[in-house]
Amino acid sequence: MLATSFLSLASATGAMAAAIHTRNQFDASAYAADDIIERDFAIIGGGAAGTYAAVSLADQNHTFTLVEISDRLGGHTRTFHDPATGASVDFGVQIHLDVPIVQDFFTRLNSSLAAVELSSFGTPKYYDFTKQVALPNHTAGTMQSDYVTLLNKYPYVDDLVNLPDSVPSDLLLAWPEFAQKHNLSQGSTEAGLAWPATPGDPLSTTALAILNDGNHIELAEDEGGAVHNANNDNSQIYTNALAEFQPHILLNSSIVAAQRGLNRSSGVQLVASTPEGKKLIKAKQLILAMPPVLDNTKSFNLDTTENSILGKLSGKYYYGGVVNNTGLEEGIAYTNVGVDRPYNAASLPGVVEIAPSAYSGYQFYWYNTEVATTQEEVQAAAKSTIQWLQTQNNVTTSEPNFLDYQDFSPFHLSPPNEDVEDGWYTKMKGLQGHRNTWYISSLFVVGSTQVWNSTNILLPDIISAAQA
């Protein structure tokens, strides 16, 4: 009995000490004056959404601090720069749609746009990388009008923020089942499975995910509306944003504790761990522009409602990199397909594609898998694939040189199907503004064009909350 009482007392004392320590982190007297930051907005995450929000808020005379865990802005926009040759290789975000919000953002950040033809990404040659079989006579499926008809039938799939509470059950079918039920043409069915940046096994991916990925903007880009940075450097807008707003951006930093008020006047307080030590951030509103999975939000003191919603969220695994000295033919997109799988869908895990860049000798690749994979494993698989392709194309055998790498996980966040049926997207939408917190990442949309547009739509509500 004595031992039990002692353990209970020790446990209670430890919990009390932890609580006191947490409270002390928000005591302004414990910080030097330069380590206390008071702003209108705290933005967590410096990808497409966070950077767009920061620039937009600054241009409307609002103050912000942006906290980014990595050493750069840009998120899934990743560009390799070779200082020796001047080559720039985009191996994350490739294109945008030529619409005003894209034009204005690039202009604002002193970055020029140029039209891009999808043919510039290479003439495809098809192989089953897993079974090491060439498919010289394979013809990829192409989108037909019946696919567009289906998109128009479900207009809310472009932006899932408007997904109805009662989600049509057909949209939660695996894509092949959905295609068969709706008598979709072979070309459209195959093309739906072949969006290059759809993570996971395409044969088990829901129709909702396929249509959300291959939305009207994606189709418009494919039909001639695509643009990219004129210097083949889509990251330039983020480099320029960092240069302009450097004093208000904390790189290599993360939030380790948070207090978020229940009313507008109480705002938020955040403790950021930075290379220069801890900083206390006081803001009127908090903008989460990072993937809000539980691993990323554990320091934000989530309440029961937030836990019940965000706890359902997960992403998939996707990786990419840049390589040279492959010996492979220039201008060819070496594309993975399944020799004996339905609709020739590629099997997992494996390299999705090895594509040419604008600079001779430099290629980029993407890797798709259903389980977390290390950089060494990804690059080993890419090397093995490249060396096998060398044998298939009668080129000089060479040792590939891996130049850059990016883990894009968690990619394409979503809840389980049963939670989609249970109105998860409506519940997530209802979290906007809860405890002075807003969510602007790619939860409801894919692609930077849509992320900027959805962020732009939500910003007036965020600003209004800060002024309440």
From TrEMBL:
Annotated keywords: Signal
Signal listed as a keyword = yes
SUPFAM superfamilies assigned: FAD/NAD(P)-binding domain
Q: Would you indicate the residue range of the signal peptide?
A: 1-17
Query: Listed GO molecular functions?
Result: oxidoreductase activity
List the residue ranges forming a coiled coil, or say none.
none
Q: Please report a single Pfam family linked to this protein.
A: NAD_binding_8
Answer whether the UniProt record assigns the keyword Nucleus to this protein. no
What is the name attached to this protein's record? Putative FAD dependent oxidoreductase
* Organism ancestry: Eukaryota, Fungi, Dikarya, Ascomycota, Pezizomycotina
